[in-house]
Q: What sequence folds into this?
Protein backbone atom coordinates (compact mmCIF):
# COMPACT_ATOMS: atom_id res chain seq x y z
CA UNK A 1 0.00 0.00 0.00
CA UNK A 2 1.45 3.37 -0.98
CA UNK A 3 1.44 6.49 1.17
CA UNK A 4 -1.30 8.01 -1.03
CA UNK A 5 -3.71 5.04 -0.99
CA UNK A 6 -5.57 6.00 2.21
CA UNK A 7 -6.18 9.70 1.35
CA UNK A 8 -7.18 8.80 -2.23
CA UNK A 9 -9.62 6.16 -0.95
CA UNK A 10 -11.06 8.72 1.48
CA UNK A 11 -11.48 11.32 -1.27
CA UNK A 12 -13.12 8.86 -3.67
CA UNK A 13 -15.36 7.59 -0.84
CA UNK A 14 -16.61 11.12 -0.30
CA UNK A 15 -18.01 11.41 -3.80
CA UNK A 16 -18.74 7.75 -4.54
CA UNK A 17 -20.14 6.34 -1.28
CA UNK A 18 -20.13 2.57 -0.82
CA UNK A 19 -23.57 1.07 -1.57
CA UNK A 20 -25.72 0.31 1.47
CA UNK A 21 -26.28 -3.33 2.38
CA UNK A 22 -29.64 -4.63 1.08
CA UNK A 23 -32.81 -3.61 2.95
CA UNK A 24 -33.67 -6.11 5.65
CA UNK A 25 -30.04 -7.00 6.44
CA UNK A 26 -30.70 -6.30 10.14
CA UNK A 27 -34.29 -7.53 10.30
CA UNK A 28 -35.03 -8.92 13.75
CA UNK A 29 -31.71 -7.74 15.19
CA UNK A 30 -31.15 -5.32 18.06
CA UNK A 31 -28.47 -2.65 17.85
CA UNK A 32 -27.37 -0.50 20.77
CA UNK A 33 -25.77 2.86 19.99
CA UNK A 34 -24.23 4.68 22.94
CA UNK A 35 -24.45 8.42 22.26
CA UNK A 36 -27.11 8.35 19.56
CA UNK A 37 -28.59 11.81 20.00
CA UNK A 38 -26.42 13.71 17.53
CA UNK A 39 -23.69 13.38 14.93
CA UNK A 40 -22.38 9.96 13.95
CA UNK A 41 -24.43 8.06 16.52
CA UNK A 42 -27.68 9.57 15.26
CA UNK A 43 -26.71 8.86 11.63
CA UNK A 44 -25.81 5.26 12.55
CA UNK A 45 -29.14 4.86 14.35
CA UNK A 46 -31.04 5.95 11.22
CA UNK A 47 -28.86 3.65 9.13
CA UNK A 48 -29.48 0.53 11.25
CA UNK A 49 -33.19 1.27 11.62
CA UNK A 50 -33.45 1.66 7.82
CA UNK A 51 -31.86 -1.77 7.47
CA UNK A 52 -34.53 -3.32 9.71
CA UNK A 53 -32.98 -3.29 13.20
CA UNK A 54 -34.57 -2.35 16.50
CA UNK A 55 -32.35 0.43 17.78
CA UNK A 56 -31.61 1.50 21.34
CA UNK A 57 -29.84 4.83 21.71
CA UNK A 58 -28.59 6.49 24.88
CA UNK A 59 -28.67 10.05 26.10
CA UNK A 60 -27.73 11.91 29.27
CA UNK A 61 -30.80 14.10 28.99
CA UNK A 62 -34.24 12.58 28.50
CA UNK A 63 -35.54 15.38 26.26
CA UNK A 64 -32.55 15.07 23.91
CA UNK A 65 -33.17 11.34 23.71
CA UNK A 66 -36.86 11.90 22.91
CA UNK A 67 -35.98 14.38 20.16
CA UNK A 68 -33.45 11.97 18.65
CA UNK A 69 -35.94 9.09 18.80
CA UNK A 70 -38.48 11.22 16.89
CA UNK A 71 -35.86 12.22 14.33
CA UNK A 72 -34.93 8.58 13.71
CA UNK A 73 -38.59 7.55 13.34
CA UNK A 74 -39.22 10.42 10.90
CA UNK A 75 -36.07 9.70 8.88
CA UNK A 76 -36.87 6.00 8.46
CA UNK A 77 -40.58 6.55 7.81
CA UNK A 78 -43.40 4.02 7.57
CA UNK A 79 -41.15 1.24 6.25
CA UNK A 80 -39.56 0.93 9.73
CA UNK A 81 -39.71 -2.62 11.09
CA UNK A 82 -37.97 -2.39 14.47
CA UNK A 83 -38.58 -0.35 17.62
CA UNK A 84 -36.63 2.76 18.56
CA UNK A 85 -35.98 3.40 22.24
CA UNK A 86 -33.71 5.48 24.41
CA UNK A 87 -32.06 4.74 27.76
CA UNK A 88 -30.31 7.18 30.07
CA UNK A 89 -26.50 6.94 30.30
CA UNK A 90 -23.82 9.33 31.45
CA UNK A 91 -20.40 7.85 30.72
CA UNK A 92 -18.95 10.25 33.28
CA UNK A 93 -20.67 8.47 36.18
CA UNK A 94 -19.83 4.91 37.31
CA UNK A 95 -23.26 4.68 38.89
CA UNK A 96 -24.98 5.66 35.65
CA UNK A 97 -22.86 3.15 33.64
CA UNK A 98 -23.76 0.25 35.88
CA UNK A 99 -27.46 1.23 36.19
CA UNK A 100 -27.63 1.58 32.41
CA UNK A 101 -26.36 -1.96 31.78
CA UNK A 102 -28.74 -3.38 34.40
CA UNK A 103 -31.67 -1.55 32.79
CA UNK A 104 -30.61 -2.61 29.30
CA UNK A 105 -30.50 -6.26 30.37
CA UNK A 106 -33.93 -6.09 31.96
CA UNK A 107 -35.42 -4.24 28.98
CA UNK A 108 -34.42 -7.03 26.59
CA UNK A 109 -36.24 -10.31 26.78
CA UNK A 110 -33.41 -12.83 26.53
CA UNK A 111 -29.64 -13.07 26.79
CA UNK A 112 -29.07 -13.38 23.06
CA UNK A 113 -31.03 -10.38 21.88
CA UNK A 114 -28.26 -7.77 21.72
CA UNK A 115 -26.65 -8.34 18.32
CA UNK A 116 -24.51 -5.23 17.97
CA UNK A 117 -23.34 -2.69 20.57
CA UNK A 118 -21.64 0.45 19.28
CA UNK A 119 -19.85 2.51 21.93
CA UNK A 120 -19.78 5.83 20.15
CA UNK A 121 -20.27 8.41 22.95
CA UNK A 122 -17.38 10.80 23.26
CA UNK A 123 -16.34 14.38 23.89
CA UNK A 124 -13.67 17.01 23.30
CA UNK A 125 -13.04 19.58 26.00
CA UNK A 126 -11.16 22.84 25.64
CA UNK A 127 -10.54 23.34 29.38
CA UNK A 128 -9.22 21.03 32.10
CA UNK A 129 -12.05 19.80 34.25
CA UNK A 130 -12.08 17.13 36.92
CA UNK A 131 -14.75 14.45 36.89
CA UNK A 132 -16.60 13.48 40.05
CA UNK A 133 -14.37 10.39 40.31
CA UNK A 134 -11.24 12.56 40.19
CA UNK A 135 -10.00 12.00 36.64
CA UNK A 136 -9.73 14.51 33.81
CA UNK A 137 -13.16 14.67 32.15
CA UNK A 138 -12.23 13.75 28.56
CA UNK A 139 -10.39 10.65 29.79
CA UNK A 140 -13.25 9.84 32.18
CA UNK A 141 -15.82 9.84 29.34
CA UNK A 142 -13.84 8.62 26.31
CA UNK A 143 -11.69 6.03 28.07
CA UNK A 144 -12.82 5.07 31.56
CA UNK A 145 -16.62 5.22 31.20
CA UNK A 146 -16.52 3.68 27.73
CA UNK A 147 -14.28 0.85 28.95
CA UNK A 148 -16.50 0.22 31.97
CA UNK A 149 -19.63 -0.07 29.82
CA UNK A 150 -17.64 -2.18 27.31
CA UNK A 151 -16.55 -4.62 30.04
CA UNK A 152 -20.05 -4.92 31.51
CA UNK A 153 -21.54 -5.54 28.06
CA UNK A 154 -18.78 -7.95 27.11
CA UNK A 155 -19.40 -10.15 30.15
CA UNK A 156 -23.10 -10.31 29.29
CA UNK A 157 -22.58 -10.85 25.54
CA UNK A 158 -19.95 -13.56 26.14
CA UNK A 159 -22.42 -15.45 28.30
CA UNK A 160 -24.97 -15.36 25.48
CA UNK A 161 -22.67 -16.91 22.85
CA UNK A 162 -24.10 -20.41 23.18
CA UNK A 163 -27.60 -19.07 22.38
CA UNK A 164 -26.45 -17.58 19.06
CA UNK A 165 -25.41 -18.93 15.65
CA UNK A 166 -22.68 -16.30 15.26
CA UNK A 167 -20.86 -14.07 17.78
CA UNK A 168 -22.39 -10.68 18.64
CA UNK A 169 -20.42 -7.52 17.83
CA UNK A 170 -19.01 -4.95 20.22
CA UNK A 171 -17.76 -1.89 18.35
CA UNK A 172 -15.78 1.02 19.80
CA UNK A 173 -15.68 4.35 17.98
CA UNK A 174 -12.12 5.48 18.38
CA UNK A 175 -10.12 7.94 16.29
CA UNK A 176 -7.00 7.88 14.17
CA UNK A 177 -5.92 10.82 16.34
CA UNK A 178 -4.77 8.18 18.84
CA UNK A 179 -1.67 7.88 16.66
CA UNK A 180 -0.76 11.55 17.26
CA UNK A 181 0.58 11.12 20.78
CA UNK A 182 4.09 11.60 22.05
CA UNK A 183 4.07 9.03 24.81
CA UNK A 184 7.80 9.11 25.65
CA UNK A 185 7.38 11.79 28.37
CA UNK A 186 4.94 9.47 30.15
CA UNK A 187 7.73 6.96 30.76
CA UNK A 188 10.50 9.36 31.70
CA UNK A 189 11.15 12.34 33.94
CA UNK A 190 10.25 13.27 37.45
CA UNK A 191 6.61 12.27 37.18
CA UNK A 192 7.31 8.66 36.29
CA UNK A 193 6.48 7.48 39.81
CA UNK A 194 2.83 8.33 39.12
CA UNK A 195 0.60 5.94 37.17
CA UNK A 196 0.20 6.84 33.50
CA UNK A 197 -3.50 7.42 34.03
CA UNK A 198 -2.75 9.81 36.91
CA UNK A 199 -0.19 11.66 34.81
CA UNK A 200 -2.44 12.22 31.80
CA UNK A 201 -5.30 13.28 34.07
CA UNK A 202 -3.22 15.79 36.02
CA UNK A 203 -3.52 19.51 35.41
CA UNK A 204 0.24 19.66 34.70
CA UNK A 205 -0.13 17.31 31.74
CA UNK A 206 -2.96 19.33 30.12
CA UNK A 207 -1.44 20.89 26.99
CA UNK A 208 -4.28 23.25 26.19
CA UNK A 209 -3.39 26.58 24.75
CA UNK A 210 -4.28 28.97 22.02
CA UNK A 211 -3.65 26.47 19.17
CA UNK A 212 -4.31 23.22 20.96
CA UNK A 213 -8.08 22.98 20.89
CA UNK A 214 -8.46 19.33 21.85
CA UNK A 215 -5.99 18.50 24.61
CA UNK A 216 -6.33 14.98 26.05
CA UNK A 217 -8.64 13.86 23.23
CA UNK A 218 -5.83 12.01 21.44
CA UNK A 219 -4.50 10.40 24.60
CA UNK A 220 -8.03 9.41 25.69
CA UNK A 221 -8.43 7.55 22.40
CA UNK A 222 -4.97 5.96 22.69
CA UNK A 223 -5.78 4.68 26.17
CA UNK A 224 -9.07 3.40 24.76
CA UNK A 225 -7.14 1.46 22.08
CA UNK A 226 -5.13 -0.20 24.87
CA UNK A 227 -8.26 -1.19 26.79
CA UNK A 228 -9.89 -2.47 23.57
CA UNK A 229 -6.85 -4.70 23.05
CA UNK A 230 -7.26 -6.05 26.58
CA UNK A 231 -10.99 -6.58 26.09
CA UNK A 232 -10.35 -8.45 22.81
CA UNK A 233 -8.37 -11.01 24.80
CA UNK A 234 -11.22 -11.30 27.33
CA UNK A 235 -13.61 -11.89 24.42
CA UNK A 236 -11.92 -15.19 23.54
CA UNK A 237 -13.29 -18.55 24.58
CA UNK A 238 -11.21 -21.46 25.91
CA UNK A 239 -10.33 -22.55 22.33
CA UNK A 240 -9.09 -19.05 21.45
CA UNK A 241 -12.00 -18.23 19.15
CA UNK A 242 -13.81 -14.94 19.87
CA UNK A 243 -17.11 -15.34 21.71
CA UNK A 244 -17.80 -11.68 20.89
CA UNK A 245 -16.25 -9.87 17.92
CA UNK A 246 -14.64 -6.62 19.00
CA UNK A 247 -13.69 -3.86 16.54
CA UNK A 248 -12.49 -0.32 16.83
CA UNK A 249 -13.45 2.07 14.05
CA UNK A 250 -12.45 5.59 13.05
CA UNK A 251 -15.03 7.52 11.06
CA UNK A 252 -12.53 10.02 9.64
CA UNK A 253 -13.13 13.73 10.00
CA UNK A 254 -16.86 14.49 9.99
CA UNK A 255 -18.66 17.73 10.81
CA UNK A 256 -20.73 16.99 13.94
CA UNK A 257 -21.39 18.51 17.39
CA UNK A 258 -18.13 17.13 18.80
CA UNK A 259 -16.56 20.60 18.90
CA UNK A 260 -19.35 22.18 20.98
CA UNK A 261 -17.10 22.83 24.01
CA UNK A 262 -14.39 24.26 21.78
CA UNK A 263 -16.85 26.44 19.89
CA UNK A 264 -18.03 28.08 23.08
CA UNK A 265 -14.88 28.32 25.15
CA UNK A 266 -11.68 28.07 23.10
CA UNK A 267 -9.62 31.27 22.85
CA UNK A 268 -8.91 30.53 19.20
CA UNK A 269 -12.58 30.07 18.30
CA UNK A 270 -13.58 33.18 20.23
CA UNK A 271 -11.26 35.48 18.33
N1 LIG B 1 -16.60 13.88 14.17
C1 LIG B 1 -15.39 13.47 13.88
O1 LIG B 1 -14.69 14.04 13.02
C2 LIG B 1 -14.83 12.26 14.59
C3 LIG B 1 -13.61 11.74 14.14
C4 LIG B 1 -13.08 10.62 14.77
C5 LIG B 1 -13.77 10.03 15.82
N2 LIG B 1 -14.95 10.56 16.25
C6 LIG B 1 -15.63 9.89 17.38
O2 LIG B 1 -16.97 9.61 17.02
C7 LIG B 1 -17.79 9.55 18.19
C8 LIG B 1 -19.06 10.36 17.97
O3 LIG B 1 -18.70 11.73 17.87
P1 LIG B 1 -19.50 12.80 17.01
O4 LIG B 1 -18.49 13.45 16.13
O5 LIG B 1 -20.71 12.21 16.40
O6 LIG B 1 -19.84 13.85 18.16
P2 LIG B 1 -21.21 14.44 18.75
O7 LIG B 1 -22.09 14.89 17.66
O8 LIG B 1 -20.77 15.42 19.78
O9 LIG B 1 -21.87 13.17 19.46
C9 LIG B 1 -21.35 12.67 20.66
C10 LIG B 1 -22.37 11.78 21.33
O10 LIG B 1 -21.77 11.35 22.56
C11 LIG B 1 -22.68 11.57 23.60
N3 LIG B 1 -21.98 11.92 24.83
C12 LIG B 1 -21.15 12.97 25.08
N4 LIG B 1 -20.74 12.96 26.36
C13 LIG B 1 -21.32 11.88 26.93
C14 LIG B 1 -21.33 11.35 28.24
N5 LIG B 1 -20.67 11.92 29.25
N6 LIG B 1 -22.05 10.23 28.46
C15 LIG B 1 -22.76 9.64 27.48
N7 LIG B 1 -22.81 10.10 26.22
C16 LIG B 1 -22.11 11.21 25.95
C17 LIG B 1 -23.58 12.72 23.17
O11 LIG B 1 -24.84 12.51 23.77
P3 LIG B 1 -25.63 13.58 24.72
O12 LIG B 1 -24.77 14.80 24.82
O13 LIG B 1 -26.93 13.82 24.04
O14 LIG B 1 -25.82 12.84 25.99
C18 LIG B 1 -23.66 12.49 21.65
O15 LIG B 1 -24.74 11.65 21.34
C19 LIG B 1 -16.92 10.07 19.35
O16 LIG B 1 -16.45 8.98 20.09
C20 LIG B 1 -15.76 10.77 18.63
O17 LIG B 1 -14.60 10.78 19.39
C21 LIG B 1 -15.49 11.66 15.67
A:
Amino acid sequence: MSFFDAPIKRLVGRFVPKPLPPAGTFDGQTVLIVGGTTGLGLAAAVHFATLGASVIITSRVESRGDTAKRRIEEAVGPSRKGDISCLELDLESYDSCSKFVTKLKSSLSGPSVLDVAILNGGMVNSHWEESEAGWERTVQVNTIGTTLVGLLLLEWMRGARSDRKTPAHLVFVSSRDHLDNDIDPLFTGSKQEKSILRQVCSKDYWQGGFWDTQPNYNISKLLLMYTIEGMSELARGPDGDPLVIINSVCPGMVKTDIGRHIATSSDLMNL
In short: The longest strand covers residues 54-59.
